[in-house]
Write the structure tokens for this entry.
Amino acid sequence: MLKGILPVLPTPFSATGDIDEAAMTRIVDFALGSGADGLVFPGFASEVDELDARERASLLRLIVKRVAGRVPVVAGASAPTAEEAIAHATEAVAIGTSIVMIQAPKSVGIGAEAVAAFYKTIADAVPGLEIVLQNAPAPRGSDLKPDVILEIVRDNPAVRYVKEETLPAGTAITAILKEKPAHLIGVIGGGGARYIVDEYARGACGAMPAVEFVDVHVALDRAFRAGDVAKARDLYMRTLPLLVIQANFRMAFTKYVLQRRGIMDNRLARATLPPMDAGDLREIDAWLDLAPDLLTRAPLIQPMLGAAE
């Protein structure tokens, strides 16, 4: 069962712009050492649109090998067409994971019949697949409504989870869980953990944030599950200002924090992202420096102002 904290891993690049496998190994080790309950790759936070087929396959292979069965690995298999998604899913199975996360392309529309046909085509083509249906908000996603999701899921036993990250996600999670068929194991929260306490309170079985605060998110998850909601809320409040900043800068923020924690060598990205200037970095540093007691798995190093982007 997928549950708990399942971070989406970024893609590290070397100074020459190539994939940095050594840095990816450190990221995986950091996540596992912090208690992550599973890993997700590639996703939007992985700059998946900037990776070619060889790169995404080689990195997924590295991750699966490094994890060595200790936790589930969820492979991103979203694509513009069902045929391409099938190819990604088939490759994931060959590499060693049968759990794939797929967002239906916007070209399919938002009608239950068309979206259901998209997922059924994939499930029929790759027997034994476990699908996480990703429901992302516009403009990247289609903002599928809970009744549409339920109609899709009811007739497709391969859909085992829903990653619900439309806004607001809480009411959608409640609606899906209230009417979910027996084969749907659970609903996983998204939105970068910016709404994680509400998602958990509504019955979400886990969350898929980015990886830079995985140790804090694991502590929050464990506190909530142990009934210490006050501690979970405290951890949430202390990290929320940073996650609000992350919402603007996305992977650039993730990589900067991982750089400050000594896990990545740089914050180079291929994706076109809003630039972070010196003022942005000072603000991030100020909030990070208020939480050294939380960031113990990989303590902060000196602020990286002026470091390579």
